[in-house]
């Protein structure tokens, strides 16, 4: 069943058309990779899914909610509680420990129980292979470790799907792998995931569907087998 559906989505910034009629369907439990040249609209497409960008026309449905018609910021915030996003910049709070960075949003924004959330946070730290860093501060961690904390923080909200926007692009090459392995584990666990990435081989390995964008359009769309081995 579809958890994300974009139909003929058009988006412009001023006179610049950035999305020129995007159609995209993502089924629950699937991993979809979006690949394309810089400036082709990948990031904007992703941001449309959690209402960080709003299209001028078209229809966007995410987990049963019509997103393109959410006019109130409060409604968009409600949507974002259910759609996790991880950015290139991890943006952890430097004065909070790793554990407190993860616990903050569920307790403050969702009003989740502190003890239960700490337990969940420790489970998530295990999942991202950082159990021993719970009491460390972000500044004491490598970029790859901080990005894995950012992933755990997104998961602590128990999202229905997670968006990854070039999450390894700012990392030192030697820490890229550890972040990709964590994402691969999540996908294998069945987390619905949409990734904007330049990691072709990773996309080929983990994706159910690969989408190529160019100049605001989807120019190819299919299984990794169809995309990487045909024509
Ligand atoms: P990609 O992720 O494929 O690199 P983006 O979606 O980031 O592409 O950007 C597509 C185009 O839209 C680029 O030309 C970019 O400069 C422009 N753009 C993105 N965000 C904004 C914005 N908030 N305001 C104006 N232009 C933007
Ligand atoms: P990336 O290609 O990695 O997505 P960009 O430089 O395109 O990075 O975008 C970084 C941020 O700046 C995004 O929030 C994007 O929306 C915004 N942005 C990009 N281009 C413009 C622009 N021309 N005017 C205003 N904001 C922009």
Q: Which structural class fits the helix and strand makeup? A: alpha/beta
Secondary-structure element order, as H and E? EEEHEEHEHHHEHEHEEH
Q: Note the total helix count.
A: 8
Spatial order of strands in the largest sheet = 6-7-8-3-9-10
Estimated share of beta-strand residues: 25-35%
Q: Shape, please?
A: globular
In brief:
The protein has 231 residues and is of the alpha/beta class.
Task: Summarize the topology.
Layout lengths: L1 E12 L2 E12 L3 E5 L6 H8 L7 E6 L2 E2 L6 H8 L2 E4 L11 H12 L4 H14 L15 H13 L5 E5 L7 H16 L4 E4 L3 H7 L2 E6 L2 E6 L1 H6 L2
Parallel strand pairs: 3-8, 3-9, 6-7, 7-8
Antiparallel strand pairs: 1-2, 1-4, 4-5, 9-10
Helix pairs in contact: 3-4, 3-5, 4-5, 5-6
The protein binds adenosine-5'-diphosphate (2 copies).
One adenosine-5'-diphosphate (ADP) binds next to helix 1.
Characterise the protein shown here.
It contains eight helices and ten strands. By secondary structure, the chain is an alpha/beta fold. Helix 4 crosses helix 5. The mean pLDDT is 96. It binds adenosine-5'-diphosphate (2 copies). One adenosine-5'-diphosphate binds next to helix 1.
């Amino acid at each position: 069943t579809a958890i994300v559906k974009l139909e003929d989505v058009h988006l412009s910034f001023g006179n610049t058309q950035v999305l020129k009629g995007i159609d995209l369907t993502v089924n629950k439990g699937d991993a979809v990779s979006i690949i394309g040249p810089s400036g082709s609209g990948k990031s904007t497409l992703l941001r449309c899914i959690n209402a960080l960008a709003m299209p001028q026309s078209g229809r966007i449905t995410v987990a049963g909610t019509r997103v393109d018609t959410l006019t109130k910021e409060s409604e968009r915030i409600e949507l974002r509680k259910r759609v996790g996003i991880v950015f290139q910049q991890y943006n952890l709070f430097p004065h909070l420990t790793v554990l407190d960075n993860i616990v903050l949003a569920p307790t403050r924004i969702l009003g989740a129980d502190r003890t239960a959330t700490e337990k969940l946070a420790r489970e998530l730290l295990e999942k991202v292979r950082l159990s021993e860093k719970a009491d460390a501060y972000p500044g004491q961690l490598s970029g790859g470790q901080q990005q894995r904390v950012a992933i755990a923080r997104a998961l602590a909200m128990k999202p229905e799907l997670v968006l990854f926007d070039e999450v390894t692009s700012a990392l030192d090459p030697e820490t890229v792998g550890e972040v990709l392995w964590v994402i691969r584990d999540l996908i294998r666990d069945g987390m619905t995931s949409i990734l904007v990435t330049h990691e072709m081989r990773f996309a080929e390995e983990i994706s159910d569907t690969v989408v190529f964008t160019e100049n605001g359009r989807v120019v190819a769309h299919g299984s990794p087998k169809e995309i990487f081995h045909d024509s």
